[in-house]
Design goal:
255 residues; mainly alpha
Length: 255
């Protein structure tokens, strides 16, 4: 499919030692700053080398591994929130299986009238959201533990994984930043300075981890190729808010 055509060359590029995945299609420009964070591709390529797989086999392996890991993360997240193993188990499985209908509502009708037109599960889509979701929701689990557990190590782990999100997916770190900001303001208004301080420390750690992302961004914006990249990489010249299909569910979950 199209996703495979996009991400397979990037994974192969990293697999061959070009960790930026800047220019998988041509020999030139390998050392240019990357426009898309290569963290997920590096993750898949690293696992491929660990298990002795080639790049194409790694994509197939990822279709099993990352949805399973995401299901485990959802399980522990919901168990920490509800203290119910049954709720955690059913919620984690339901989110993975029902994501088809959240991302593609027309599947409700297709399921009964056009079964052959039911689209594949989004979490079988390589890299995004397959790998990036694992990073994001694992960070969310750590952030929840930061707020609910007295152990200081969760502050450090939450901060580290927040920083890693910058190398994974722009929407992941943007959403995480907004969420931490809202929760920080909430605890300030509640005068719970201890939790507000923990959030600040975690954000500080994350920004320190993300420093190479900002260095790359500086060089990217200064690159003579940046104007051309904007026209070919689906960058939007707007600050207008855009509605997301799962925005309502995200807000409901947080509430």
């Amino acid at each position: 499919g199209v996703d495979g055509e996009v991400y397979y060359p990037r994974i192969k590029e990293v697999y061959d030692g070009n960790y930026k995945a800047t220019s998988p299609a041509v020999y030139e420009y390998k050392n240019e700053p990357y426009a898309f964070p290569p963290g997920p591709e590096n993750t898949v390529a690293f696992l491929a080398q660990v298990f002795g797989l080639n790049a194409s086999q790694a994509i197939i392996f990822s279709n099993f591994l990352f949805p399973f890991l995401l299901c485990l993360i959802f399980y522990f997240l919901f168990f920490k929130i509800t203290s119910s193993r049954l709720v955690a188990l059913t919620s984690s499985i339901a989110i993975i299986l029902l994501s088809n209908f959240v991302f593609f509502p027309q599947n409700f009708l297709n399921l009964f009238f056009h079964p052959s037109e039911v689209t594949f599960n989004p979490y079988n889509r390589p890299i995004h959201p397959q790998v990036s979701s694992v990073y994001f929701y694992f960070w969310l689990l750590l952030f929840w533990l930061l707020l609910t557990d007295i152990k200081k190590r969760y502050v450090a782990f939450s901060g580290i994984f927040f920083g890693l999100l910058f190398y994974v997916y722009p929407f992941a770190w943007l959403f995480a930043t907004a969420l931490q900001g809202l929760v920080f303001i909430y605890f300030l208004l509640r005068k719970d300075l201890e939790k507000a301080k923990k959030i600040l420390i975690a954000v500080g750690i994350g920004l320190a981890v993300s420093v190479f992302y900002w260095i790359n961004s500086y060089h990217l914006f200064a690159s003579p190729f940046y104007e051309v990249l904007q026209k070919h990489l689906a960058f939007y010249h707007t600050r207008r808010p855009l509605w997301g299909n799962i925005l309502f569910l995200d807000i409901a979950f947080l509430v």
